[in-house]
Design a protein that fits this description.
three-stranded antiparallel beta sheet; 93 residues; Arc Repressor Mutant, subunit A; 24% strand; 3 helices; alpha+beta
Length: 93
């Protein structure tokens, strides 16, 4: 899938979860191993909770990071989500 549908709800695929160990780096645990999450990537993945669409995730991030432009947030969030979808980590709810 080359483009993320902005009005569909996103969630982690079965078998994928965020690491929860205190003091541990931000990791997304997947069946094949783990992905290191840098910058706002953890916040993005947390917001893909099966309740929010991509548009809602972008709106929430824009509130959390008011100094960033909405266009940049949208572009970077869509790119991360698309990459995670290609790897089978995120899916539509």
């Amino acid at each position: 899938m080359s483009e993320v549908a902005p009005n569909r709800v996103l969630r982690l695929a079965a078998g994928c979860r965020l690491s929860g160990a205190p003091g541990q780096e931000d990791l997304l645990l997947i069946p094949e191993g783990a992905l290191r999450l840098k910058g706002p990537a953890r916040a993005i993945v947390e917001l893909c909770d099966g309740q929010r669409t991509l548009q809602q995730v972008v709106a929430e991030l824009a509130q959390r990071y008011p100094g960033e432009g909405v266009g940049r947030i949208q572009t970077e969030t869509a790119a991360l989500v698309a990459g995670l979808q290609r790897r089978g980590v995120l899916e539509y709810g």
